[in-house]
């Protein structure tokens, strides 16, 4: 049996932190389309079940068209059984009020719910005790402030089954949960879990839970901001129903990838110098086919020390790379530096100004900024503000 484990899709996320309104609208459609593509992948690759471990939606403010599209796509793939556990970002169950819920969409609530994946989706079948087969069982519960610490003792699994448990929250090793989104891994050890399907953490992670099982965050399906760089996709679980043996594989699936590239531009004297330094580092770090590069969102963080008389235009730099990528942002983390020896014997007004500032009781950063501003003003150039 093949199962997809995904989470943190965050449909209808605003996405306006970095993108303009038009690109944000396009990006929201792309994330919805990636959800569609994942269901197509499941159908084409003999997947029988899809587990959504929370945060399918981003907030209560979900468009009717997005909800209708999700339900319509799930219904269209009736050969798949879809198990949706709501996360902390998801709206209440009322979001589906007045709509036809597909027969192949299964939900969880604030009590443990058990589904037999390789048979009828029936709690009694999973716990009847009369079936000697190696059943594949999915257990899940929506964590709340009321049940967050008692769920562990209430979990009931048969040792002989292949047991998948799904929860949404942040892992912690020991102790009680202080909020609903905390999962105590220690309390889930030695409970007969083979695969703990988690959501909430946006980067893929797969670790050993105990002698028997593993816990897995698949990460978000698509990165949305520069705190979500790297590969994104879902986990594919392949279980041999005869032996219970399990194999897992991360499937990269995002339409766009985000990069945060760090470039030290120490020694640059003008914008073209910096552009050359960025290009060398950027195209080395951002690999892929031409179409992949054109789809990428890139944040370029420039660091290092610049002489106060260097002329670096960050807007100009961003324009140099706009045609190569879907979105480019330049973050300036450089420091201005003053070489006093350059001005010791400078008899001009500029030299006198620099020496006077260097004698003041203030931070080196403030001195450098004032000197840069003064030099530009004396030259009749545009004064940059910080």
Description:
The chain is α/β, with parallel strands linked by helices. It folds into two domains: 2-252, Purple Acid Phosphatase, chain A, domain 2; 258-378, no CATH class. Helix content is 26%, strand content 25%. It contains nine helices and 17 strands. It has helices at residues 21-44, 64-76, 123-126, 151-154, 271-285, 290-295, 314-321, 349-358, 364-378, and strands spanning 2-6, 49-53, 81-85, 105-107, 113-116, 136-140, 162-168, 170-172, 182-184, 195-199, 205-208, 214-217, 233-239, 246-252, 258-264, 297-307, 327-337. The strands form four sheets. It has a six-stranded mixed sheet with strand order 4-3-2-1-13-14. A six-stranded mixed sheet has the order 5-6-7-10-12-11. Helix 1 runs parallel beside helix 2 and helix 8 (349-358) packs antiparallel against helix 9 (364-378). The longest helix has 24 residues, at 21-44. The radius of gyration is 27 Å and the shape is elongated. It starts with a strand and ends in an 8-residue tail after the last helix.
